[in-house]
Design a protein that fits this description.
single chain, 88 residues, mainly alpha, Protein FAR1-RELATED SEQUENCE
Length: 88
Amino acid sequence: MNLEEDLGEEKGDRTHPRDGPTTPLEAAFPAQASDDFVPRDPPRSTTKGRAKSRRYKSALELHPKKKNKCTQCQSTEHTAGVCPLRLL
């Protein structure tokens, strides 16, 4: 006589205790397989720092970026570190 016969179980009748509902909420509302369930993005949280302005700046407020120029020859094609006049 083995343990399974003592408990009155057969090999195919065993179930794990986690197979059933684990909480009263799960017992009251069983899970339903639904094809139309679409997960949504979580709500955005506020971040640190100053809030970025969302308004569009006018043409008067926008300034073109200043181009770097060579301090040796005033050319905008290179900087003083690689100036051909300095290398001479």
